[in-house]
Amino acid sequence: MIISASRRTDIPAFYSPWFFNRIKEGYVLVPNPFNSKMISKVSLNPAVIDCIVFWTKNPAPMIEKLDKLEDYKYYFQFTLNPYGEKLENNLPSVAKRIDIFKRLSDKIGREKVIWRYDPILTNEEFNVSFHKEAFADGLKDHTEKCMLGFIDHYQHIRTAVGQFNIKPPAKEEIEEIAVSFRQTMDAYPTLQLDTCTSKDDLRHLNIPAGLCVDKELIERITGYPILAKKDKNQRNICNCIESIDIGTYESCLNGCIYCYAIKGNYNSVEYNMKKHDKHSPLLIGNLSEDDVVKERDMKSLRNGQYSLF
């Protein structure tokens, strides 16, 4: 099985001690996002975990501890945007995060660190010219892929982003940005440029819709073929294969004003952080008497039947 850690929160940045405690204990408890009293017990036994996909904007707290994952295969989706503290107000500086990106890549291999330029958003300050200038080739020796994502203007983030006059980029803006990025990447044949979903179809610009939880990359990292279906728990425009997310919503303190996973509820994030116990099997809080825990059926996705062709 594939573990996603996590679309819902930044585990490497804020919960690394907890994560490594869960690795040591061999399991994690994950509440159902729609019913927090229904909890899945998810095995972290290396025998059933094919790969771990980390999602982060600051993996620095985890880098020196990655040797503890010697029994696991993994890679990082590293979001590195150029907005700075105005829109991402609890992150290290852009320059520092570039250094962190390079340090992680040097440690685990450039193929295991995917650069996410996501979300692309526009207003008077962060206009098309800003993005064209900000997207540079400084990471060319430290990754093999860049994933582009354009902001989803969810109802629950419109108040937050509206304070900065942020609106979904127009089709013309998207295409101008994409052409500029494609021209930058064309100078480096080993670098791939994808969109995060099929929502914005840029195939005519030689930018395919990619996968974040990527079957081909996972097979390359693990060294064996896997049998995996499209993730039915994601949107139809998402091409990712199935995975189990072990995160919890409203628990990330990166302070990104466009974040869909906290729904603008910064007070809830601070409250949840106070309930975090690095020794608990739950990311936030501890088990209650009325919680219902069910063991998740877990098995490797490894395909033992090799094709002759």
Question: Can you give a write-up of this model?
Answer:
The chain has 309 residues and is of the alpha/beta class. The protein is 26% helix and 18% strand. It is built from 9 helices and 10 strands. The protein has helices spanning 11-14, 16-25, 60-63, 94-108, 128-134, 158-162, 171-186, 215-222, 266-275, and strands at residues 2-5, 27-32, 35-43, 51-56, 74-79, 113-120, 145-150, 192-195, 244-245, 292-295. A 7-stranded parallel β-sheet has the order 8-7-6-5-4-1-9. β6 (113-120), α5 and β7 (145-150) form a beta-alpha-beta unit. α5 runs parallel beside α7. The longest helix is centred in the middle third of the chain and has 16 residues, at 171-186. It is globular. Residues 305-309 have low confidence and may be disordered.
Please give the count of helices.
9
The secondary-structure element order is: EHHEEEHEHEHEHHEHEHE
Relative helix content: 25-40%
Instruction: Output mean pLDDT.
Output: 93
User: Helix/strand-derived class?
Assistant: alpha/beta
Rg, rounded, reads 19 Å
Basic shape: globular
Separation, N- and C-terminal Cα atoms? 26 Å
Oligomer: single chain
What strand line-up does the widest sheet have? Answer: 8-7-6-5-4-1-9
Percent strand equals 15-25%
Q: Which spans have pLDDT < 50 for at least 5 consecutive residues?
A: 305-309
Biggest sheet record: 7 strands, parallel
Find the count of extended strands (DSSP E, 2+ residues): 10
Short synopsis of the structure:
The protein has 309 residues and is of the alpha/beta class. The protein is built from nine helices and ten strands. The strands form two sheets. A seven-stranded parallel β-sheet has the order 8-7-6-5-4-1-9. A three-stranded mixed β-sheet has the order 2-3-10.
